[in-house]
Amino acid sequence: MHIVVLTKPVPDPAAAAERLGPDGRLDRAASPSVVNGNDEYALEAALKLTEAHGGEVSLLTMAPAGATDTMRKALAMGATRGVLVTDPALAGSCVRSTVQVLAAALRDLTFDLVFAGADTSDGGGGIVAAGVAALLRLPYLSNAARIEPDPVSGRVQVRRITATGYDLLEAPMPALVVCTQVLGEPRYPSLKGIMSARSKEIATRSLGDLGLSAEAVGGTVATTQLLGTRRPPARGATQVVRGSAEEGAREIVAFLESRRLI
Amino acid sequence: MPAFWVIAEHNADGSLARISAEAATLARSLAAAAGGDSEAAGIVVAADPGHAAEQLAVYLPRVVAVADAAAAGHAWAVLAAERAAAVIGDAPDAVIILGAGPDGRDVAGMLAALGGRGVLVNATGAAWDGRLTVEMSVFGGKLITTSGFTAAGGIVTLRPNTVTAEVGPAAGTVERRSAAGEPSIPLVAVLDQVAEVGAAAPIEEARIIVSGGRGVGSPEGFDLVREIAAELGGAVGATRAAVDSGWVPYSQQIGQTGKIVKPQLYLALGISGAIQHKVGMQTAETIVAVNRDPDSPIAEFADLLVVGDLFEVGRAMLVALRARSG
Ligand SMILES: Cc1cc2nc3c(=O)[nH]c(=O)nc-3n(C[C@H](O)[C@H](O)[C@H](O)COP(=O)(O)OP(=O)(O)OC[C@H]3O[C@@H](n4cnc5c(N)ncnc54)[C@H](O)[C@@H]3O)c2cc1C
Question: Whose CA is nearest to atom 2 of ligand 1?
Fold first, then answer.
């Protein structure tokens, strides 16, 4: 079983230091970079499946050249190798370009499954994976709470979380699955994992290697553009109430009444 | 002049999803602002689209209802994307609005790839001012950006509670069509649809959310959270700590890897206010917290913080609320 996991380096949300540079693009120097939290769930799910069925997990990342450092963290969790698509022309790419680049890179890889995280903590769109599946004509199974591939029948079953429970989906492999946190907590890299990650292969690919040109994808042909930014209105000062439980409760009810919430 | 399209999502019982009524209201007001011959229209794709289409026509002058038998046994997103793409055609100035939840995102991603359109995600506002401008909250709520498309149109995913649904001046027409042709993206079979017991009210759309964290301590502890939610007419939310402990289903989790909510009232019981939780709820209009630690991070962004034990304050609050409603 070969699984490719789409992983994106993102500014660490815990550092809360994200900002835009003067060009209106994410200032990557402002924050430490980590593997996107939702991608770690996808990677964990992939590692568990290859441990059970045999096979390998590859990472696919589109990012600036420095992303190899962050990719090593994911390799330390147990992925076998990484592919980094990096090209100066990709700075400022929109969703359409990202989808085209990832799809082109996947065309060069062999896999039974592609996993993606539900969304990224920086972009937050949660739409790239669906676009990649559409371009590659792959069956697309999203919002997964459980993933059960059957190497014998060549099919995969997924529990897709719905508003009222779940749908049981089934499709032939290769297929693309979007993973959720419900699949299980990601492991911490072991010391051995960290050591071995240093020598694992990270292959880099440029746009040219993928047969794409900067006239077709990347920052200069972005479909969206930033027009302006503003700070959200500041919240007022916090009113703090101490005293008995009854006093506290009375204060809450009075506060809700004053704001016409009850 | 652009056409503003809403691709409607529906609930398990075939009724129109609330987010789509909100998206339809937005499409109508954008078309009015754009003026000229711009139109607002909706598309419903389902095995039996009639009910949702009639409901959508309350908000829009024109609705195209595409009946697709395949939708009965297959995942919806592929069919919705392919059928909607056929209805909309390749007009580059089409503006297509979907919800920012799982179903809307799936369709938006596929439509973007099929038609090479741009996407602006998680809109918290949209306006027409010679062109479409879309506001988004980014970096965990620290910044609001305004963006536009470089082409005349594109796809927008809309956050719930951004727009208040308002019916149109007159009911629109419903045009019935049957799906034609094989989709180019493979269909995914739905073998079974399982309703889980205790599936709670959807939190994204709730006006009031009463949320519990690790401080609630146990599954039984959540009975109190549920009681308060019921008394206030709200939905139950939770932190990841409470979800990971198995006290509440993941569907109720709020935050970075859960849902992003924007209720009028967020009542946080035994929640510290970690950054990953904060990003999911900080745009709530009013935040009230009960926490026994006055120095927990939530003290920095709540409007009202009651320092105390959540069970004692919670029970006293139920008494006070019930006395009030008499
Ligand atoms: C990649 C990643 C993604 C994450 N995504 C999310 C997410 O989507 N949503 C999310 O919520 N978290 C998320 N987290 C986890 C987050 O970092 C916090 O661990 C979590 O939000 C803490 O939940 P909590 O506030 O319930 O628990 P704690 O931080 O343990 O806080 C419990 C609070 O309850 C108070 N308390 C305890 N007992 C009582 C009592 N009897 N009465 C009153 N107060 C009491 C305590 O003073 C404390 O402030 C994520 C973390 C990571 C790394």
Answer: A37
A124 touches chain B (CB under 8 A): yes
Instruction: Collect all residues with Cβ–Cβ distance below 8 Å to B223 and sequence separation of at least 6.
Output: none
CATH of B3-178, one of 3.90.1530.10, 2.40.50.100, 3.40.50.620, 3.20.20.70: 3.40.50.620
B101 to chain A: closest CA residue: A126
pTM: 0.95
Domain B203-325 falls under CATH 1.10.10.1100: no
Q: Which residue of B has its CA nearest to A141?
A: B188
pLDDT of chain A, 262 residues: tens digit per residue = 999 999 999 999 888 888 898 888 888 888 899 999 999 999 999 999 999 999 999 999 999 999 999 999 999 999 999 999 999 999 999 999 999 999 999 999 999 999 999 999 998 999 999 999 999 999 999 999 999 999 999 999 999 999 889 999 999 999 999 999 999 999 999 999 999 999 999 999 999 999 999 999 999 999 999 999 999 988 899 999 999 999 999 999 999 999 999 9
Rg value, chain A, Cα: 22
DSSP string across A92-138: T--HHHHHHHHHHHHHTS--SEEEEES--TTT----HHHHHHHHHT-
CA distance B118 to A225: 10
Residues of A in contact with B317 (CB under 8 A): 248-249, 252-253
